[in-house]
Amino acid sequence: DADVTQTPRNRITKTGKRIMLECSQTKGHDRMYWYRQDPGLGLRLIYYSFDVKDINKGEISDGYSVSRQAQAKFSLSLESAIPNQTALYFCATSVGAEETQYFGPGTRLLVL
Amino acid sequence: QKEVEQDPGPLSVPEGAIVSLNCTYSNSAFQYFMWYRQYSRKGPELLMYTYSSGNKEDGRFTAQVDKSSKYISLFIRDSQPSDSATYLCAMSAAAGNKLTFGGGTRVLVKP
Predict the structure, then answer these.
(1) Contacts with A40 from chain B: Cβ below 8 Å
(2) DSSP A10-73
């Protein structure tokens, strides 16, 4: 089984709808991250969490919220989806001060 | 101006050629430098990791960091069609700190 899983893998939604993307990990890592990827822009950090009680905004947090339900689970919500939130979303994990981040397979989101 | 710049490509090379990729950056505080490989419809995976300036070699891959020029490179020797992917550079200022990514370079190795 994959160490970092994301659900759903693909989602189509309409403008104004609330949507939640979920991430689970079996790596036992304390740190979790949400990124979005757009063509030519690389990965941009939305939110990150260094432990269950720690939530931090990344560079593009507007329009998003997160919940760290447990060490292994980190959810990303779009409260009212808009078309420019159409992107590929990745969850990642890391442990302590190590630099290596392990990425999930991604969720492809289309907002109509 | 982006903090990390990377040519988007695509970079097309024949099988067996050397692939040369690079990134430039503006933040002199960056000390940790990484290269990630991303296959189509997959998440990025760490390929190379370098701390501060210098070279690092791992099989067919060599990573170079020149902090004085704020320039990092990745070389792939004897390229294979399986090396066709998008390569993303990433960097951070401190261990365990959040990463800043380049936009990625798409590489196509033709048989």
Answers:
(1) 8, 103-104
(2) EEEE-TT--EEEEEEESS--SEEEEEEEETTTEEEEEEEEEETTEEEE-TT-TTEEEEEEETTE
